Amino acid sequence: MYLNLAFRTHFTNMTSGPYNYSYIFKYIIIGDMGVGKSCLLHQFTEKKFMADCPHTIGVEFGTRIIEVAGQKIKLQIWDTAGQERFRAVTRSYYRGAAGALMVYDITRRSTYNHLSSWLTDTRNLTNPSTVIFLIGNKSDLDGQRDVTYEEAKQFADENGLMFVEASAKTGQNVEEAFLETAKKIYQSIQDGRLDLNAAESGVQHKPASPGRPLAAPPAARDNCAC
Amino acid sequence: MDDVLDEVVPSEDLQKFEKVYHEQLHQGRVTPKAQFEYAWCLVRSKYAADIRKGILLLKDLFNSHAEGKRDYLFYLAIGNARIKEYNKALHYVKAFLEIEPANQQVLSLERQINKRMEKEGMIGIAQEIAFGLSNERFIWRSLSSVEKAKKGVVCLV
């Protein structure tokens, strides 16, 4: 009986506990190979820097619960591989993204030059309400800078993108990029610009109170058949 | 959806890459790229038959195309885990980690596979216990009240 109860408690907790967040936002991280997309994700979810980060295979997935305006929001983040051979399939992950973090490396000009191609893909494959945030990564390597802040800021402004320079290594501005994107998405929901019922809005609303009744537990005692 | 093992490919994507693969197959030459893209979609299908087909295509690539070996190993692990062939999945994970022992993406996949094995193992044990209990009850109910009295058991409930 003890075992039986122990299992029941375990599964109740596992399957039917109330949601501890009110929304789920889907993010994608895109950009050239080696710009530090996975390192940014790792810094954001684990608060650690991954040195010698190997090339991502296909897509990687991470989550973190954050708070915006008193609401708990679960971020589901798809970190896509930058290598060309994955690009055809990773495009399908753009669909239904509420936020897109588009990353380049401030020390490699070519990764900046390719931004318009990443932006075209993003615009074509996401919704008009998708928030696109441009991140110039590796800001700790200022001495090797190949793209000025002003130039990138201008590109961002011209294309209506949010923008920061960040460092996955030191953590500088990493939280900001993920959180500011969430704030902007949340604002769009409040303003009614983002339709929660649209299939591909990239946002799911979850009731904060228990969404479904807990499964009625079987009788705690076995009825005696005498 | 909480990890990569839960993710299901949209059917239009599966169809898109299936079409490319079949066109190339029809022309008599399938590129590793088309085969991989199709296999990558297949192992994320909700149907076990698709996943098994994806596994076969990936095994074929693994033996014929050296350049993408780490990608093929990774998706062989995912495909096998999705059809609950956990030991095979862990075998591919181990093979990968022998070459890149610190790969976080693969270490995280290994944790997810172990978590599933543990969870499903517990469900299995719980089912066995439940089955055992109901069997005992069945035997007990089958006994006549006289037999119960003979056994000297006093029911307090």
From TrEMBL, chain A:
- EC assignment: the record states 3.6.5.2
Q: Which cofactor does it need?
A: Mg(2+)
Task: Give the enzyme's main class according to its UniProt record, as a single word.
Answer: hydrolase
Keywords of this entry: Acetylation, Cytoplasmic vesicle, Endosome, Golgi apparatus, GTP-binding, Hydrolase, Lipoprotein, Membrane, Methylation, Nucleotide-binding, Prenylation, Protein transport, Transport
Question: Which biological process annotations from GO are given for this protein?
Answer: defense response to bacterium; endocytic recycling; Golgi to endosome transport; phagosome maturation; protein transport
Which NCBIfam families does the entry mention? small_GTP
UniProt protein name? Ras-related protein Rab-14
From TrEMBL, chain B:
Q: Which family does it belong to?
A: Belongs to the FIS1 family.
Tell me the lineage of the source organism: Eukaryota, Metazoa, Ecdysozoa, Arthropoda, Hexapoda
From the Swiss-Prot or TrEMBL record, state where the protein is found.
Mitochondrion outer membrane; Peroxisome membrane
Pfam families to which the protein is assigned, alphabetical: Fis1_TPR_C, Fis1_TPR_N
**What's said on domains?**
The C-terminus is required for mitochondrial localization, while the N-terminus is necessary for mitochondrial fission.
GO biological process entries: autophagy of mitochondrion; mitochondrial fission; mitochondrial fragmentation involved in apoptotic process; peroxisome fission
Give the membrane topology, semicolon-separated if more than one.
Answer: Single-pass membrane protein
Its domain of life? Eukaryota
Q: Which UniProt keywords apply?
A: Apoptosis, Membrane, Mitochondrion, Mitochondrion outer membrane, Peroxisome, Transmembrane, Transmembrane helix
Summarizing the function annotation, the protein's role is:
Involved in the fragmentation of the mitochondrial network and its perinuclear clustering.
Q: What name does this protein carry? A: Mitochondrial fission 1 protein
- Give the matching PANTHER family: MITOCHONDRIAL FISSION 1 PROTEIN (PTHR13247:SF0), TETRATRICOPEPTIDE REPEAT PROTEIN 11 TPR REPEAT PROTEIN 11 (PTHR13247)
Main localization of the protein? Answer: mitochondrion
GO CC annotation: mitochondrial outer membrane; peroxisomal membrane
Give the coiled coil ranges. none
Query: Which InterPro entries does the protein's record reference?
Result: Fis1 (IPR016543), Fis1_cytosol (IPR033745), Fis1_TPR_C (IPR028061), Fis1_TPR_N (IPR028058), TPR-like_helical_dom_sf (IPR011990)
